[in-house]
């Protein structure tokens, strides 16, 4: 039995969404037990409860030795406000956890990867059940934790790899949460940003990625219409800044803010290690 | 006679706007001559001409010894793509220039301040003529270059000071354009960003501002309506992150994306030096 705790370091989820995923897991993944922390439904302003509530729930899930994994419920902003405080409160049980999430959860995945605490994994979240095709996204995660590697991003190789939302990784740079990424393949995806803002984020981010093995671009989706065309595609933007910063551009990655978002275990993927 | 070159390192301006400002300057500031570089009206995708066009115009204005100042026409994104390339092309005449602008022009102001090239000044731009009350904003700049200090931000003291758009400064952090700001009063303003994004930018920025004398908050305007209230005001956000990062929060600054935007000469203000 794989026991997974769900908490919400950023924004809340709806009870109906949680129930749907619990039913799905019980029906299709009998070796998985999902435990939804009640903090997932707390609301304080933008967040799933106050900083203290979100921090306490995260620490409780991390330190409970009966859980194998902690699945972040949803993104939307907020995890960066509690990540630094969580680290000194983590006990030995946190070091064996698998952490699953993406988007705003990247602040935690990055910090835990930096500190070599457990296993950070870029993966769809419970809240993705709301997306078109979201049932498949949830199945991909529950399958992965059950030992099915078919949902893993297909380009993973012998390089250690990380995957982030572009804004999240750009905001991590230079903070106490930023992992060292020399030698890594870095995958980034973005959603709902103007292309000029994507270009600006690449200006910033690539200045911090010296020594990486290369960059792969996930999907840049739901780009708002600006008053004029930007004049370059997301791939052209990524290639331009990689070229300026002497970073190899490696092509695309099958990640993004959508139901097709594939799984990227941080570090060297086990299947690559084993083969 | 003070001769001012106007070029557009970011986005283009309309000919009518340029003509209106030239007429205003000729009528009210006879000791000022404005020379509008034709590149200000070039268009390529998002930008006022290609990177090469914008770079060439900037370098031409900077290296022309007949100009006392270079006034950036408008913000809107693009200056960070040409700032690094401009520096090695600057000759001795660039070192005596006053550089005037704000918002996206902050990439240049920051880079020139870092390299101690001339005098960077946060100030309204020609394109501000379009704003409500924009004539007063333009008068403030033309008055300043004519020797009238009444448009200068009123809180300036003996500390060296800089002023930036919040996003611009956050994106500068860790790049080759970022000036050292230890001991400085840092003023930031923002426009058209969700409050969660403002909070995220402060998370990032304050991690890079160790050792500054303190932070002052300009106006955070045109905040888009989100699907739920954030739960904190811009000042509360600034105080929160300053407190976490041991940065003194010094109060408000009279700057912003509006016609009231005051002038902030980077470094120690002359009037404070002289008094």
Largest interface: A-B, 33 and 33 residues
Q: For the largest sheet of chain A, list the strands in their spatial order.
A: 2-1-3-4-5-10
* Biggest beta sheet attributes of chain A: 6 strands, mixed
Strand portion of chain A: 15-25%
Residue runs with pLDDT of under 50 for 5 or more positions of chain A = none
Q: How many DSSP-defined strands of chain A? A: 10
Please explain how this structure is put together.
The structure is a homodimer of 275-residue chains. With 275 residues, the first copy, chain A, is an alpha/beta fold. Helix content of chain A is 32%, strand content 18%. Chain A has helices at residues 15-28, 51-63, 83-86, 106-114, 134-145, 166-172, 195-206, 234-244, 270-274; strands at 2-7, 32-36, 69-72, 98-101, 119-122, 161-165, 185-191, 214-221, 249-252, 264-265. Chain A has a 6-stranded mixed sheet with strand order 2-1-3-4-5-10, sandwiched between helices. Chain A has a 4-stranded parallel sheet with strand order 6-7-8-9. In chain A, helix 1 (15-28) links the parallel strand 1 and strand 2 (32-36). The two termini of chain A are 26 Å apart. In chain A, 55% of the residues are buried.
Helices and strands, with pairings:
The structure is a homodimer of 275-residue chains.
Chain A: E1 2-7, H1 15-28, E2 32-36, H2 51-63, E3 69-72, H3 83-86, E4 98-101, H4 106-114, E5 119-122, H5 134-145, E6 161-165, H6 166-172, E7 185-191, H7 195-206, E8 214-221, H8 234-244, E9 249-252, E10 264-265, H9 270-274
Parallel strand pairs in A: 1-2, 1-3, 3-4, 4-5, 6-7, 7-8, 8-9
Antiparallel strand pairs in A: 5-10
Helix pairs in contact in A: 1-5, 6-7, 7-8
Domain LD-carboxypeptidase C-terminal (chains A, B): 165-268
Domain LD-carboxypeptidase N-terminal (chains A, B): 4-116
Pfam families (chains A, B): Peptidase_S66, Peptidase_S66C
């Amino acid at each position: 039995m794989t026991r997974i705790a769900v908490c919400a370091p950023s924004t809340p989820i709806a009870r109906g969404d949680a129930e749907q995923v619990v039913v799905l897991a019980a029906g299709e993944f009998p070796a998985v037990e999902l435990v939804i922390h009640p903090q997932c439904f707390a609301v304080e302003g933008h967040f799933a409860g106050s900083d203290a509530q979100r921090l306490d729930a995260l620490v409780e899930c991390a330190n409970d030795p009966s859980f194998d994994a902690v699945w972040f419920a949803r993104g939307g902003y907020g995890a960066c406000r509690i990540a630094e405080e969580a680290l000194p409160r983590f006990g030995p049980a946190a070091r064996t956890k698998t952490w699953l999430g993406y988007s705003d959860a990247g602040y935690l995945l990055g910090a835990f990867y930096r500190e070599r605490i457990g296993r950070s994994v870029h993966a769809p979240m419970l809240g993705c059940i709301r997306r078109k095709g979201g049932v498949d996204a949830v199945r991909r995660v529950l399958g992965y934790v059950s030992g099915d590697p078919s949902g893993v991003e297909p380009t993973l190789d012998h390089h250690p790899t990380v995957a982030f939302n572009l804004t999240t990784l750009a905001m991590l740079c230079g903070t106490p949460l930023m992992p060292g990424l020399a030698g890594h393949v870095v995958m980034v995806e973005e959603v709902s940003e103007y292309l000029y803002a994507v270009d600006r984020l690449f200006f910033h981010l690539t200045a911090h990625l010296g020594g990486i093995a290369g960059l792969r671009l996930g999907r840049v989706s739901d780009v708002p219409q600006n008053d004029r065309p930007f004049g370059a595609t997301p791939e052209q933007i990524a290639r331009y800044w990689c070229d300026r910063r002497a970073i190899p551009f490696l092509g695309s990655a099958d990640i993004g803010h959508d139901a097709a978002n594939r799984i990227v275990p941080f570090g060297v993927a086990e299947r690559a290690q084993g083969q």
